Amino acid sequence: MDPQELQAWLRLTLTPGVGNETARKLLAAFGSAQAIFEQSASTLRQLGTDKLASALLTEPAALASQLQTTLDWLQAGDDRCIATLGDAAYPSALLDIEDPPLMLYMLGALANRSQQTATNTVAVRLAIVGSRNPTPQGEANAREFARALAGAGLCIVSGLALGIDGAAHDGALLGGGETVAVVGTGLDRVYPKKHLALAHRIAQQGMILSEFPLGTPPLMANFPKRNRIISGLSRGTLVVEAALQSGSLITARLAAEQGKEVFAIPGSIHSPQSRGCHALIKQGAKLVELAQDVLEELNLPLSGSSGRGTSASLGAKGDAPAGDQSADDPLLAALGFDAVSLDALQARTGLETARLQAQLLELELSGQVARLPGGLFQRLAAG
């Protein structure tokens, strides 16, 4: 994209009162972003109000600095590009959603590839989303499902948020697969800062994508808005854990409205983080226990590693993996899979407090039990 064309697209997105819908109408009428700003006031008034025509004829004060910032960013490496509506590098899947973004900023290995190959050749994408405050088991599930599915050839899409999103990206990378992070800020900043190292790993093996101009801070309104891109890029959306009032349910709803598959992992009936998934299942989402369930629903062949005996394994459902001694441990049996207090465990087992705490510590150190806020303990599925 030459600087003049880029300047026109930036001006279109920066002009007050011009949203995506209005911009698409202007592009349809005049053929290109540059052509819009070559029109007379009278011509522009025919497509809108006097206020809109005046706004389009007034150059935004921030345009010059935004253009220079964007050019500098593009020239900083060959792992970045900008795709505008209609470009060859623009993901074709987004053309079918209700509100396709006008511009997409792309950073990473896949961004470089998108400039060289047709977008139709990309791997099948699956969105994995969920709570920012998951249970330890929920976070482990997200990581293991992403690892198994990425190992089977899927590209995992998520939002780089804390919790399930971060675990999904990490799992995809551990599985040697591709992952795309759709973020709610400009690509010159990472939010949350805790995921700075993860963002660098994603850029090396996948792509970070945003519709927001460089310099855009983490504004709350932008995060629900980016969810339509997460679902739009993907063949389906897997919700790992979500409360009833959750942005993940927005992504699932958008996926359903876009005609995509919706999957949900069930959890404890006592866990608030499971209620959103249970609500989705009641509404017709596919209940998922194994990565194989997702692949079968998407009519994709089984391939890659079957994992390490986790619930995300591509293999068939069955008993605990060979060598797993948890079934013989009476304390694990007493724990079940719901969060439980020390007092409740003491009542179930009859163990003295000191002995019970020692055994719990041993199980915690071996990765079979997690300690939760409020003095609760939760059994973890064997990994």
From TrEMBL:
<dbReference type="InterPro" id="IPR003488">
    <property type="entry name" value="DprA"/>
</dbReference>
<comment type="similarity">
    <text>Belongs to the DprA/Smf family.</text>
</comment>
<dbReference type="InterPro" id="IPR010994">
    <property type="entry name" value="RuvA_2-like"/>
</dbReference>
<feature type="domain" description="DprA winged helix">
    <location>
        <begin position="318"/>
        <end position="375"/>
    </location>
</feature>
<dbReference type="Pfam" id="PF17782">
    <property type="entry name" value="WHD_DprA"/>
</dbReference>
<protein>
    <submittedName>
        <fullName>DNA-processing protein DprA</fullName>
    </submittedName>
</protein>
<feature type="domain" description="Smf/DprA SLOG">
    <location>
        <begin position="83"/>
        <end position="298"/>
    </location>
</feature>
<dbReference type="Pfam" id="PF21102">
    <property type="entry name" value="DprA_N"/>
</dbReference>
<dbReference type="InterPro" id="IPR036388">
    <property type="entry name" value="WH-like_DNA-bd_sf"/>
</dbReference>
<dbReference type="InterPro" id="IPR057666">
    <property type="entry name" value="DrpA_SLOG"/>
</dbReference>
<feature type="region of interest" description="Disordered">
    <location>
        <begin position="306"/>
        <end position="325"/>
    </location>
</feature>
<dbReference type="InterPro" id="IPR041614">
    <property type="entry name" value="DprA_WH"/>
</dbReference>
<dbReference type="Pfam" id="PF02481">
    <property type="entry name" value="DNA_processg_A"/>
</dbReference>
